[in-house]
Amino acid sequence: MRRILWTTLGVALIAAGITAAWTETQQWRGGHAWFHHGPMGYVSHELDLSDTQKSQIRTIWEGERPNVAELIRELASEQKEMDALTLQGNEPDQGRVQDIAARQGATPARLLVEKEKLTGKIYSQVLSPAQRTKADKLWEHLSSRLDHIADRIGNPP
Q1: Radius of gyration, alpha carbons of the chain
Q2: Is the pTM value of this prediction over 0.85?
Q3: How far apart are the C-alpha atoms of 28 and 41, rounded to whole Å?
């Protein structure tokens, strides 16, 4: 159960990172972009991305999408393989469990590498220095929110 929780959290963080880099959204409307256009509407607004920049990011994302999709397929396949092994009702072969678990651990790491590759391209090829500073502050805010969530989980009422 713990493995599934951490895997899910890892995938969620990776997805959030990819989503934060991918701004395939419309313009900010009526102060509700977060809800109408998801996190990208918010990020797009906060960084004041031009239509050209959004198009550049979309192009970068389209180039990386197949790699990310394949890694997510791998993650799903590994989870199915583990479920098939552990949910058969008898004691699973621990050697196979270790092998699958090792692969399950490596796949989110490869997804994180893809996220950093995507983020690096966007930072270096699309964002202006002022936008990079704003993006850094947004990431800092996200990180502090994750710290706050971890503190809440770690210190039950």
Answers
A1: 19
A2: no
A3: 6
